[in-house]
User: Fold these one by one.
Assistant:
Number 1:
Amino acid sequence: MLGRLLVRFLRPYWLLLLGVVVFQLGQSIASLYLPTLNADIINKGVLRGDTSYIINTGIVMLIITLGQIVCAVIAVYFGARLAMSFGRDLRGAIFHQVGLFSEREVSKFGAPSLITRTTNDVQQVQMLVLMTCTLLVSAPILAIGGVIFALQQDVPLSGILLVAIPVLLIGIGLIISRMVPQFRKMQTRIDTINRVLREQLTGIRVVRAFVREPVEVERFADANGAVTETALRAGRLFALMFPFVLLVMNVSSIAVLWFGAGRVDSGDLQVGSLVAFLSYLIQILMAVMMATFMAVLLPRAAVSGDRIGEVLNTDSSVVAPTNPVTTFTGSGQVELRGATFSYPGADQPVLHDVSFTAKPGTTTAIIGSTGAGKTTLINLLPRLFDVTGGAALIDGADVREVDPELLWARIGLIPQRPYLFSGTVASNLRYGKPDATDDELWRALEIAQAKDFVEKMPEKLDAPIAQGGTNVSGGQRQRLAIARALVKRPEIYVFDDSFSALDTATDARLRAALDREVGGATRIVVAQRVSTILDADQIIVLDDGKIVGIGTHDQLLLSSPEYAEIVQSQLSIEEAA
Amino acid sequence: MSATSNGGKPAAPASNPRPDGPTPVRRGPGGGGPFGGMQGPAEKALNFGPSARRLIGRLAPERGMIILVVLLGVASVVLSVLGPKILGQATNIIVDGSISKQLPAGVTKAQVIEGLKAKGDTKTADLLSGLDLHPGHGIDFSALQLVLGIVLLLYVFASVFSWLQAYLLNGVTQRTVFRLREDVEAKIHRLPLTYFDKTPRGELLSRVTNDIDNISQSLQQTMSQLIVNLLTVIGVLVMMFVISPLLAVIALVAVPLTLGVTVAIGKRSQKQFVAQWKHTGALNAQIEEGYTGHSLVKVFGRHQEVEQAFAAKNEEMFKASFGAQFISGLIMPSMMFVGNLVYVAIAVVGGVMVAAGSISIGDVQAFIQYSRQFTQPLAQLGSMANLLQSGVASSERVFELLDAEEQTPDADPAPSPTAHTGRLEFEHVSFSYDPEKPLITDLSLVAQPGQTVAVVGPTGAGKTTLVNLIMRFYELDGGKITLDGIDISQMTRADLRSRTGMVLQDTWLFGGTIRDNIAYGRTDATDDEIHAAAEAAYVDRFVHSLPEGYNTVLEDEGGNISAGEKQLITIARAFLARPSVLILDEATSSVDTRTELLVQRAMSALRKDRTSFVIAHRLSTIRDADLILVMENGAIVEQGTHDQLLAKKGAYARLYEAQFAAPTDDEANAAPPQPVLVGAPPSTGEIVREALAEEDGATDA
């Protein structure tokens, strides 16, 4: 998966990638060539006492080192640009993909997980690309070049490499392979600390009320101890790394000198070559070490790559039509025709053969127990979900055939959890109609019974709203969400349990205002409270995804035992207390 | 919005001299307030000196260990610094041998040199005069063996010491970080609730996890490298001067060059990194908001705008992080350049010197190795400055938390009421969260043992505040509250709270089994007592339908049981705690009708024979209360019984009219006055019918 991601998102930058490789190659060759020149200085200059040769070669070395830094800077520039462009494009692609998702896919992943995938996981892969561009590209060049130069100096002595490289690889491999599971474990243990602490902070009142501080301190100490233990283990392994690498390098140098001495003695090798050989040896082993360090990054990046791939490869179950209907001919008549919805692989459909019609100017209420499919049902209209059987129609047109922009413009949705965006009251209200005037906003607030409290805020319409709307109360949030939909002036209103945080009196005033102000619109109301839906033109009783009753309150009291039970239970609560 | 701070450097190669790239943006665990610190740990320490000193002070308990670490560091550095010098000896032996072999046997070194001089080849003569020649003999392998043997031993010990040093240092760091976390945890339990009110949760979490993590990494990397690098630089410098003062001076030129380059680059990259984190935060906020409000974005037709806004932020972040990566990426090539300059300079000058016979080839070779060892730690010392700054900035944030004002400590010895009747009295109590906005002024009331006090009023009237004061979550500004005759501010908090029980609106359960969650009420409770409490709170019934029973582990988001069932568990918890004063919040979140019924019955059973304060939402509770407190804008505007207050035709009557009397009269409308939600898993249907069949109060524990 990681490979495919890399290919797909690096392809547009192949020129940059080529540049990175070329310039890294340039700078690697330069740094490989320098020891050769140094050997020349010793062999041809020092040993022959040729000072002018030494100086001339020195000038050549300087020119080469200048060339090296030019190559290195260009390579870093290309590499950073490549990696960051890659990250940017990947984030953009994921964000775009998630934007296409229907609620089904979003809830499958969960918003927090999607956020992590867009940010953290991209960072991991981006880091791999960056490190590859700056380190890994030159590592094989350095290693191979080093080997070639070393062979040039002396072939038999290069045999030492056949021992040193595998020893280094195996040693580092062993250390890293033991470290990776520790790191993985550490991640989950840090999660545990986070969880314990988060629980303590959210439940701080309960902790104090039940005098459970000592228990909590202990719980935290356990989690803290577990993290520390893993960190100690990983750290101990890591402590081995450098002494080991150093030892291998140093022992190899000793071996080179020992065996090299023999070759020098027999006249097969010059002293200068021996010194150069030592430099190449260190270079090769350093390159091998760098490459092995990448092995730490790779498993993490691979996991992240998989997680990103999952998002990118998930097709939205809601696809925009190719030849969309771009005009409507009615005034917002909603119809479900045998609508069925089930999750892939699920035994039971969430909605089963649901049919009804909601006419403009009427209110249709939907009631039923949790999990009956109420929210799923209304989400079919704005295509947050698509039916898996049957059809949802607006003014006779299947919603799947309609231009999504047009569809959404006609529907005002007030979701179950009234989410407000960070900004101001006004910016939230204008969410569906950016050019709405202040008068329009106040009008909507008045209908939504929100005018009073907005007026009391010092900044009024410009009062700040925190992300999610956490700085206003639940009831206020609901009313602002209703006002937001009202500003849009849609033909169809969908209230998903939007009155639950309101007291009965406000609820009633709001419904009365809605009747007055948007009486001509089609209203679909999901509710839990019988009092909220008493006046509805039709009430749909949903149970286990099926319609078990449809009619007015009075009709249903007689005809639907399920409805009667709901009414009865709301009555008995009052009596039971 | 949650904590999206950076967690410092990636855990990977610790020796990587470059300031690392975009550090993984670690998200705090879900949720969090709207202000959940979106910025990484501040990149610039505001008060570097004192904070750094304090951070070092945290290491005090490890003093002995640190001395050992330094000693080991010195040993390993000395050994590895000596290495090249001795290895150079080996080269010399080889050179001597190879040249001696070319000379005729039987002549002395002096003769050879004389001969060369006579021939006019003074250059070679000078060269050879510096060598230890035994004409005719080859390489002295036994001498070579001895030298290499010594070096091998040296290197082995150097590696062992450096391993021990890293091993011990790891322990020092981890234990220090462990203690830091412990201190923060202890601190959290000593902080007044006001602190939590004004500090977003994500922010606190970020300090304990991200910042401490950052400190840990900074400590680990800077401490080991600071010691090693400093010692190496000094050791290498000494060796260089021993070998050749002239060459050493040349190499010394590298110091200001290296430092200058590192500081110049570091300064710029620091700025870029700050920008990068700022933009990362902004982008994260954008993503978070876009995903959380996903369906709204769609339905309100804002997809285009959102994607444009994202693209703009994404581009900004690209620019900033590209700048940071490019500039910080320059450090390594620059160091290489400086290193190579030195290399060339030493080769040329060294070569000339060797030719002049004033230095041996082996020494030049050793010197070149030293010069490599010299520039690298210098570069690392430079780049460490960045790391250190970030670590100190994080520790400053943690210290800030540790320094926050604590709640007043409990009196010792503290008076404790002898009676357990639960008589609660407010005497001229005044309180406010914000001194500018007085909330409760001159409040007096008496709750007699066993009475139920219903607190009613609109949202924001201060009902919850009243409860907070009884639990002494906040300190009074004036007056006093007594429990069974003793001022609660004199009692220990533990004593007070063990006498008071609380069932709150937000059902707080922790990630553990149902049994553990109930036992939270009293840790020493027996299994029988837990079962009794569970039965009284109707928990027992639904627990039996769970495959794991009481051992069912509640998931983080509590997905496996319903909101109502959660509430029942918190009630069971209160049952188990057997408090003499009870505080109940009746407000129900999304609970279906049938569970709601159970909740209500359990609460009413719990109230029996206890002094109870109820934040009441149900008409029946209010009607049956012994005392109703009507709150408006923080003051108790009326108190009395239902009938008394209705007759008064004051605030209560108005409230009653607005909340409970139906706006349009209808037979069913009068029935469900409180928010009642419908629906329950069918499996609980049986339970409910059963419960309905029971008589009122028959469910008392």
Number 2:
Amino acid sequence: MTSLFRAVLDSPWLTPVLTSLVLTAVFPLGVGYLSLLERKLLADFQGRLGPMRVGPHGLLQPLADALKMLLKEDIVPSEAEKSLFAAAPIVSVAAAMMGLTVLPFSGHIFIADVNVGLLIVLAFSSLGAMGIILGGWASNSHYSLLGALRSAAQLVSYEIGLGLGLLAGVMVAGTLSLRSIVEAQLHRHIWFAFSNFGLMLLPFSVFVMAGVAETNRIPFDLPEAESELVAGYHTEFSGFRWGLYMLAEWGNILVVSSVAVTLFLGGWLRPFPDIALLDLPLNAGIPLLTFGGIAVYCMRRAALARLRYERLILIAVSVVFLVTGLAFLIPEPRAQLSGLFWFLAKLSSFVYSVIWLRATLPRVRYDQLMDFGWKYLIPLGLIGLVVNAIIGLL
Amino acid sequence: MPPTYAAQYLPVLIQILIAVAVAGGMIGASAVIGRRVKDRVKNSPYESGMKPVGSARERFSVKFYLVAMLFILFDIEAIFLYPWTVVYRDLVKLDLNHGLGGFLNGLFGFFEMVVFVLLVLCGFFYIWKKGVLNWAIEDKDEPIEEKKRAA
């Protein structure tokens, strides 16, 4: 028994499998809270309060949503292809989660370090389009079919722009392994978005624009344009199947943002990673201020809360954030956590911008969408590649 | 890390299995917990409350096929560039000590790519000028034709 235990403990699979399981557990919960964040932010942009009823400040809303989706009737339309209809959302969500496997969340935390990591991310993001077109076609409804076709055309069009943006980044890094890319940025003392005298900003912006379109977000959310197509490819999906599509959509946003952070914004590196003097203020000070600030805010809210259970929840949240913040003061956990902190900080700013875009921009027309993808992004991507190749000569 | 090359990909495989199992499990759970009431009208395809008109298995615009074909072409071209980008920094050397020949030799990798990208661009502008990329119908003759017919 003990020898088996030892064998499991010493096995090289332990860390990947554990990280995998943690990711699988954290991912749906995190996406649930991202949806709450989106609703709260949109409400804030529009001068509303957003969800306030379930839990203090709507903090339990995602759990209530998940429960509601579980209890909803799982409708399969009579005309649908049953097996494909069942498989499509699973394909979508699996593809979105696969993208996360090769991403390095910090120097120590990753599932697989593959030497063609970036290609794997691209491959799985293409697979996501399969889930969408399968679902739309299997529904056997006019709206679903149109939504799926539009979606497929949009995804493949912008994937070229996305790929061209990435190419320039790979050219500067000289590797496809996402971990080595971050390490290259450490050795080169610069985030790749700003290298080549700032000219890398061109491929970076091409990548970001194509990424927003690739994840079906406003202003490019034509696949689910509710004013013309009801809900696009997921018109016929209800209950948890619909929930899986939402999970996949957020998963794709996270994957694209993580790739942007890893390739262009230094991944888990803190700002100015080679100035040792800044280690303490940046790796201990800023996390402590961030988490401590949230903790203090939650405490103040707890003091104002009227209901007892709301107060208890807010105090618990506050304590969790305070403990996390204080952990950064101890050297050992700091070394483990600071990479993850900076990665998540950069990722959060990306996610915030994506939600901000939704609050700011109107939806484009379909022909404008295709025009922008083919006539602007692809030439811009090629120009960015050639210009940076010329600078790379020097 | 796992020692062998293929073994690097095992965590990815594990993650696929876990992801499919979790997604399938969620749907299964909702199928068990959620109640089902069969209803012929409710289970019909959604068309804004109307009776569905015809089947959804109908023909759609040929433009979608064109986009698919162009995507395959351009994506393959982008894929061709990936190996080149990975080795680019080693491939190109700015050699100023061996005269013009040495200089051009060092730039071989760069010019290879420029020729390739130019060829891609030629094809790109060809399909552009052929009007394949115009999604909206903007045939300039059409309104005149209609006017003629009307007259």
Number 3:
Amino acid sequence: MTRRTLTLLCILALALCWPWLPDYTVTVFSYIALYSLVAAGLVMLTGIGGMTSFGQAAFVALGAYSTAWVCTSPVATSALAEVVAPALLPWLGLALGLLLTFVVAWALGAITLKLSGHYLPLCTIAWGLSLYYLFGNLDFLGGQTGITGLPALTVGGLSLASPRALGPLIWAVLLLALWALHNLLDSREGRAVRALKSGRVMAESMGVDTARYRTKVFVLAALLAALSGWLYAHLQRFVNPTPFNINIGIEYLFMAVVGGSGHLWALCWAPR
Amino acid sequence: MDSQIALLLGQDGIVNGAVYGLMALALVLVFSVTRVIFIPQGELVAYGALSMAALNTGKVPATLWLLVALAATTLVFEAWRWKRGATVDWKSTAVWALVFPALACLLVLGLHPASLALQAVTVLVLIAPLGPLIYRLAYRPLADASVLILLIVSVALHGVLVGLGLLFFGAEGSRTPAFSEARFDIAGVAVSGQSLVVVGVAIVLVLLMFVFFERSIVGKALRATAMNRVGARLMGIPTDLSGDLSFALAALIGAVSGLLIAPITTVYYDTGFLIGLKGFVAAIVGGLGSYPIALLGALLVGQLEAFSSFWASAFKEVLVFALIIPVLWWRSLNSRHVEDEE
């Protein structure tokens, strides 16, 4: 039995017993998938790209807060009420979250990634903290109390309010992301990314613009984190700054490291 | 805002900046000698402050037991290494794992220090050997690992030490009596004696460090190790001992900073992390390599913190940590070459 069939069998087994699992287990599995999504980005960043980030939780927060703001704030909902149906608001939130994360990650990456290795991890701790305090102090984001009453996702008229209904979507997103990352690593671009870790001078001499690829991988990892944040916000239906503080950011990195930061699949059984 | 408030805030900023400056010095020292980004530096500050508070109330600070435990573990570890055929420098091991812990036990349990000065000395004896002991147990076995792995060890160690701090000192914060109750009136601005003590001690420590690194043979050996480890070893400098020494200095500076801030702010078990990180922001201004620029950076961080707590107190931490972004941007403008990571 190859690893591929084993993985497929595990996924199949999980899918088959999903309706009969107790509620608690369903929630835990949903969280595992959410954390794995962030950790997958970190594996790309740390294990394969050779960069370290303690600040992924901040990108998760960007994703979660964007959708929370779009779906609940009076300013956004009243402005968008005539343009889109309420059921589509979370998707606008996703778009805003990804856009914001892209801009922030690209800007941060452009500044820090050109410098040598140890600046990036320190810098990520600093802006991880900075964003955490920012979310805790902005009144229109609810401050430390956070934002309540996020709507549930609806897909094709089907409401995904309970973890049991949303879980399959989270897992589908995770598996799709892993599959896409796997394919990416097998491509020409992916080989360039893998060359980043083992020595930048060698990669540069082969015509790989390392600074550019480092920024790309960094943005990719940030986008995965934002996606996880969006799913988290609609799973929890409540957002506050606590789950995005620097300790959680450190935990995300530890998940990736414990799972063996060089392999994409390893992370599925690392978290929790 | 009038000039009175500006002067007051400026004074506040200088006092905070002095403490961050000490942090930055310790971090730059440890990083340049051992390539360890010593995140637990902040915890040593909290340990120093809280041990002082415990001594003040007549209790035995639990850091003593931590010191004894670490010393015993180090002895066992070194004996195990010696048995496996590694060369062990027993002289330095005895200093850190026997002499200092014994002295600390004697001071805390035997002498029950009552005066503020003696208590301060006791805290220094308690905290300073923690540095080299932590180095020997956590970092030295990995001395050849990459900066990244050492950093991850640091983060893990930070988690362990914060947890132990909560166990030792509880969740309540502590404050200690000021070293000086005096108040001065300089050009219409009230200056407390304690802030003069902070700035004075910081300046003295910086000058001592300067003399140590510029004039003494040990300091020069440390600098040589920081510059080129292999070269230093070829010149007969025992580079393994330089790790001990730089961690001892860092822990000493941490303990002194803890003593200095304990009368100014209430210190909790997890206060140290933020103080240490602000030291990092200052150290990064200097590129983790330059002492004078790191000190300037520390003053900048202190002033920024003081003034932002006046104008936008809710966003104080946001502004201080966001400072790192323009700093790095400015640094990235000056670095054009591609660096290979070890």
